[in-house]
Amino acid sequence: MKKQEFLKLIRSKITFLDGATGTELAKLGMPHGVCPEAWVIEHPDSIATIQKNYEAAGSDIVYACTFGANPVKLANYGFEKDTIAMNRPRPAGRRRRWFRHRNDDGHSGDSCRVDRRP
């Protein structure tokens, strides 16, 4: 989505975004402690199901599962060298079909590092 399209959308109505993707992935079987971005690549139907459910619930914008797809976060799982690959859209064809009037926003979020203590 281009910046002007986004601004037009949010100025025209209350805009709904998805949320709690990690919680939804866990409900679909993603184990605790795994890299969500890697798990979604291995289980593409999981994110497709979540996105379809968000659309049915009325979301205008649906994030891709790339929130932690940056080298700092991916290093926690040994995937820092896979950052570019993990930020590629998947599965683009399905998203475009389900969200032809909506948006799928690839999003890289939190890049802070949290040290975990035993």
Please give a structural write-up.
With 118 residues, the chain is mainly α. It is 45% helix and 5% strand. The protein has 7 helices and 2 strands, in the order ααααβαααβ. The protein has helices at 3-12, 21-27, 36-42, 44-57, 71-74, 83-86, 92-98; strands spanning 61-63, 103-105. It has a two-stranded parallel sheet with strand order 1-2. Helix 3 packs across helix 4 (44-57). The chain is globular and about 45 Å long. 20% of the residues are buried. Mean pLDDT is 77; it is low at 92-118.
Describe how the helices and strands are arranged.
Elements: H1 3-12, H2 21-27, H3 36-42, H4 44-57, E1 61-63, H5 71-74, H6 83-86, H7 92-98, E2 103-105
Parallel strand pairs: 1-2
Describe this protein with a few key phrases:
118 residues, mainly alpha, 7 helices, disordered C terminus
